[in-house]
């Protein structure tokens, strides 16, 4: 499936062998519209205005000019981000991790409490109903874990298999 941003950018995709002939790569060629990099640059300019930063993944916050590192430090941080393959800084990762833990704790804290009758979240008085709901939720979670494991295994195994097959073609 071609990403919507690529379609909107008006490009033609072509596939070929990558470095050493082992990997598939996609090449975008302009076709009467801006190159994908230009479309992405415009989207970033709109979504990430100068003087603002992303906070908690959804919100923006004003950047204090005094907190902006000098050019040498920014270069070092970009090089470190490239080496770590990270697109967000350590402070934002810590914030998002804290939100994730808080959400997990809230989920555990409400276990056994449901809004069964539209009157608000409360403990379920009917123990048989509570057990059936808990069983259903646990089965849903188990299936999700199995699906996530299968998708992860495919992701880990398939790229290598595709790479090996392509290297044998050339």
TrEMBL record:
Keywords: Signal. It comes from the Eukaryota. Residues 1-16 form the signal peptide. This is Mitochondrial fission process protein 1. It comes from Diacronema lutheri (Unicellular marine alga).
